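step: validate -> pass
step: tokenize input -> pass
step: predict -> running
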Amino acid sequence: MFPKTHPLVSILAAKGSVGVAFSGGVDSALVALAAFKALGDKAVALTGDSPSVPRRELETARRLAQQIGIRHHILGTEEFQSPDYSKNDGSRCYFCKSELYSQIRRAQPELGFETICSGANLDDLGDYRPGLTAAKEAGICHPLIEASMNKEMVRELALEWNLEIWDKPASPCLSSRIAPNLAVTPERTLRVEKAEDFLHDIGYPICRVRYFPNDIARVEVPRNRLPELVLHSKRVRETLLGLGFTQVEIDPEGFQSGKLNQLIPLNQKQRWTQPA
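step: predict -> pass
step: emit ->
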């Protein structure tokens, strides 16, 4: 039997009705599952869709919502229409989340929920997170933080509650692959998506294709798989060049989440770092 006495479920039950910002990642999926168990049809999952969202992730969100049983709505977002978003100066996530929460607010009257919830957890505090500033301004609740849960605890509970994606790697938006101060465009995010889809299809589910000026691609896979990737390097280069990249490099350091954040100036990061 599902443990309705778990603090996360109790926190969500007390909110009466909720809309969960639902990306299809493990954090928001756990919140969506707990919300559905606590509130039934008074909970709804809301997924933003734009050129920054990989089609694979959108399909994952659809499938997970169906498995959970929660109502699910996909909302078109228009962050690419904002010059502040597109210029990609280190504050991009703020404008993305502001647009998402604005669209969710617009859906409230039709879908009938009182509170908007995110999947932020304790590990997101004390880190460079422009999106959390947008969430604070929009009055978004963070049930995982209220339940004092970090990422490890989220994965443990997701496994206990039989969420199939309990160990799913983080999958930030496609715009996060574009080097800081290089304009984010639908054409560039689509090129990245096609390149990463190719890598997925040849057996690299954990990968990044970073987009640098002059249409240079830098490919990252886990360090222990680098020798194998080198054997496929000719095929990888030919495929990515065929997608419109002018140069393809394999990063010898291997995959590192958030690597492009190292290129953002420290004072810019400090502006958007959330207090722990």
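step: describe -> The radius of gyration is 19 Å.
step: cleanup -> pass
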